C-alpha cells in the first residue's frame, strides 16, 4: 500500500491504521448497515410471502363460493325449466284474484295470448300506488313477466285511473315464492310517498312556490271575483262558488289568486298539493 506521496506502507503501519478508533468506528458502521439491510430484506420477503399466502387463501375461498353459487343457479334454472307451466287454471286464477283483492285493483281480464299455450295477459285497472303494489306482489309469484303496458284513462276529479296489461308466463301454477330480496324492494318502494307520474305536476311560481298537481282538466274554473272592500276572492268552479276554507272533493281551498285556485289534500297520510287554473286565457272569460 502506498500513500499519495508514493511511499509504501509497512505491515506494521497498516495494522496501526486499522486499530485507529476512527477507522474501527467506520468499519463497525458499515457492518451494521449491511446487517440492517440484510435483516430488512429478510423481513420484507417474509411479509410478502405471508401476504401472498393470505391473498391466495382468500381467492381460493371466493372461487369455491362462486363455484357453489354457480351450481345452485344452474340447478335452479334447470328446475325452473323442468317445472310445469300450468297444471291448474283455477289455482292460477285464484292467486291472481287474491293479489288483486289485497291491493285494491280490479282484474278486467285474464286470457292466454294467441298462438301460445303458456303465456297469459292480465288486464287490471286501479290507481297508481295500487298498481305498483300489485306488480310488486306479482313478482313474488313463480311467474316470468314478458311484457308490460300501461295507459291513463280520461282524467277525472279524483286521481287518474290506470289500465295495465301485463303478460306473464306462469310456472307451478304461479305459486308464491320466498325471496327476501323482493320483500326488501317492496318495503323500500313504499317507505316514502311516491308521486303519481300520470298526474301533471306544475311549479306554482305565482302562488306559494310549491309543486302542485295540475287538475285543471278535471274541473272548470270559469271566474274569479273580488269582493270590496275586504278584497276576498271567490272562485267559480263547475258553477259553484268557493272561498278559502271551502272543501272541493276532499281538497281544502287554501288560496284563490287572480287566475288559479290552490288546494291541499285533507288526508293526513298524503301531502299532495293541487292547482286549478283557467283552461284558457282569463281575459277572454266574461267576469261577473
Please give a structural write-up.
- The chain has three domains: 71 residues; 101 residues, Alpha-Beta Plaits; 84 residues, Roll (SH3 type barrels), CATH 2.30.30.830.
- The chain is an alpha+beta fold.
- A six-stranded mixed beta sheet has the order 5-6-13-12-11-10, with no helix packed on it. A four-stranded antiparallel beta sheet has the order 1-2-4-3.
- The longest helix has 62 residues.
**In terms of per-residue confidence, which ranges show pLDDT below 50 for 5 or more consecutive residues?**
1-5, 282-288
What is the CATH architecture term of the largest domain? 2-Layer Sandwich
What is the number of strand segments? Answer: 13
What is the helix/strand order?
HHHEEHEEHEEEEEEEEE
- Main beta-sheet annotation: 6 strands, mixed
Q: Can you tell me the CATH topology of the largest domain? A: Alpha-Beta Plaits
Summarize the structure.
By secondary structure, the chain is an alpha+beta fold. The protein has five helices and 13 strands. The longest helix has 62 residues, at 21-82.
Amino acid at each position: 500500500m502506498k500513500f499519495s506521496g508514493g511511499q509504501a506502507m509497512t505491515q506494521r503501519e497498516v495494522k496501526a491504521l486499522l486499530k485507529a478508533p476512527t477507522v474501527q468506528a467506520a468499519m463497525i458502521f458499515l457492518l451494521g448497515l449491511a446487517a440492517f439491510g440484510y435483516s430488512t430484506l429478510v423481513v420484507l420477503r417474509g411479509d410478502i410471502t405471508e401476504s401472498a399466502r393470505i391473498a391466495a387463501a382468500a381467492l381460493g375461498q371466493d372461487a369455491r363460493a362462486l363455484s357453489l353459487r354457480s351450481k345452485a343457479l344452474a340447478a335452479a334454472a334447470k328446475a325452473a325449466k323442468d317445472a310445469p307451466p300450468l297444471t291448474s287454471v283455477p289455482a292460477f286464477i285464484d292467486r291472481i284474484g287474491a293479489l288483486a283483492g289485497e291491493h285494491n285493483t280490479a282484474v278486467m281480464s285474464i286470457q292466454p295470448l294467441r298462438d301460445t299455450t303458456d303465456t297469459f295477459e292480465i288486464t287490471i285497472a286501479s290507481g297508481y300506488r295500487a298498481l305498483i303494489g300489485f306488480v310488486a306482489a306479482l313478482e313474488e309469484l313463480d311467474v316470468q313477466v314478458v311484457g308490460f303496458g300501461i295507459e291513463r284513462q280520461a282524467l277525472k276529479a279524483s286521481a287518474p285511473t290506470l289500465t295495465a296489461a301485463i303478460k306473464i308466463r306462469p310456472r307451478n301454477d304461479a305459486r308464491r315464492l320466498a325471496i327476501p330480496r323482493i320483500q326488501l324492494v317492496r318495503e323500500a318502494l313504499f317507505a316514502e310517498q311516491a308521486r303519481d307520474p300520470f298526474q301533471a305536476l306544475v311549479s306554482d311560481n305565482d302562488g306559494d312556490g310549491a309543486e302542485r298537481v295540475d287538475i285543471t282538466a278535471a274541473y272548470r274554473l270559469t271566474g274569479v271575483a273580488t269582493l270590496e272592500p275586504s278584497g276576498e276572492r271567490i272562485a267559480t268552479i263547475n258553477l259553484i262558488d268557493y272561498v278559502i276554507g271551502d272543501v272541493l272533493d276532499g281538497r281544502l281551498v287554501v288560496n284563490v289568486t287572480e287566475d288559479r285556485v290552490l288546494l291541499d289534500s285533507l288526508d293526513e297520510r298524503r301531502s299532495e298539493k293541487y292547482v286549478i287554473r283557467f283552461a284558457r286565457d282569463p281575459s277572454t272569460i266574461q267576469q261577473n
